[in-house]
Amino acid sequence: MTMITTKKKSPGRLSALLLVLFGLSFTPSFLGGEGRVQAFRPSTTTKSWSSSRSSSVLSSTRLLANNKKKKAVIAGATGYIGKAVVRESVRQGYETYALARDVSKLQSPEGKALYGEAFQGAKVVECNVCNLESLQQTFADITQGDGDNDEKIDLIVSCLASRSGVKKDAYAIDYQATLHCLEAGRACNARHFVLLSAFCVKNPWLQFQQAKLKFEAALQAQNDMTWTIVRPTAFFKSVSGQLEVVQSGAPYVMFGDGKVTRCNPIAESDLARYLVDSAQEPSRCNQIINLGGPDEPLNMQQQGEMLFQAIGKEPKFFYAPLWLFDVIIDSLQWLADTFQSEALENAAETGRIGKYYAVEDMLTTDPKEKYGTITLQEHFNRIAVEGQEYDPYTTMFAKKPTTAATITTTATQKEEATSL
Among 162, 175, 210, 255, which is 20 to 30 Å from 128 by CA? Predict the structure, then answer.
């Protein structure tokens, strides 16, 4: 199993409290990710880890003219969407390289519990995406072929996303580290770059949105690689963070009247398939694509009703006033300006992120921008029975697994099996 880890710092206490409050209504879908493989020839600066288990039956096989598998590199592979992309890349027959900052963490009991089944058949490569020289060496190693014939990287998928969304993290990951992946790909003549961006950049008043747009501009400005930018509305995981809360008997929290915003989230497995398929789909070449799931527009109250239906309980709601955001944000910003405090500035930005998702639609209505077969109700029905995969940033009150035995079949795998 493999994941790419971009220094996951846990948020400060104040920011964490804000994330819990705001995340109850909608956890930002920008929290994407950072991925397992067979051995390849590493340089002295690059380590790899080989999975002992091969991939399951492939639905298709990506082969070059000489019958060698095409190569795919997944950055952000340890994140929630990144794991699904690694799995999908392997399923489609790519020789898949998942980038990870610290492979040893994946081999720990906790790492195996979280990622043990996710990256079978992929090659885990240890490197630091924040270090351009290290990343270029890693890509050079991946492209080494037999003799004098180097093999190109056919697909790079970046699922990198800052965990906090505050300015420093956003520009370090959403812009700079992602730019490193692009530059390393250009240096080794990689063929196609797929960026997992975010639908919300269409109306950018947050730092992470501006960082993402800055990279999008850099990607479009170069002509060494073809590219696809995919901007998903929301992930299923980002709208199911209250499952454990309502199962315990607490009310479902909404802002305003529960009808302020609407969205059509997309299943992780459907999104992963779309991202990987983009390398082979001419109509997506050099295109920016907004992408949502198959549902009709769903407001917060409808989502809550669906969740209560799934767990078999009568709906119970708590309506939080929208003005609460402004009071908290303005107070934190005043304190940040007064005391020149970066921590308070970050807390204010966290508040702005919460407000954004409480007042902005994450919705595609054009049929060409709706994709997948799994509905949100189907997702809720399943996780109500099986529970949902643990993620510290999108599942507010789920319990962290401690052994590999705690995860037998992940939620994403079952969604993927359902859609095949």
Answer: 210
Are 141 and 46 within 8 A, CB to CB? yes
Spatial separation of the C-alpha atoms in residues 156 and 71, rounded to whole Å: 9
Q: SS3 of 76, please?
A: coil
Q: Mean of the pLDDT values across residues 315-324?
A: 97
- Using the CB atoms, write b or e for 5-30: b if 16+ within 10 Å: bbbeeebbebbeebbebbbbbbbbbb
Q: Is 216 exposed, middle or buried (0-12, 13-18, 19+ CB in 10 A)?
A: buried
CB atoms inside a 10 Å sphere around CB 322: 14
Q: Does residue 195 sit in helix, strand or coil? A: strand
Given a cut of 90, whether residue 350 has pLDDT beyond it is yes
**How many beta carbons lie within 10 A of that of residue 245, not counting itself?**
16
In 294-404, where does DSSP find H-type helix?
300-311, 323-339, 342-359, 376-386
CA-CA distance, 239 to 32, in Å (whole number)?
14
CA distance linking residue 11 with residue 14, whole number of Å:
8
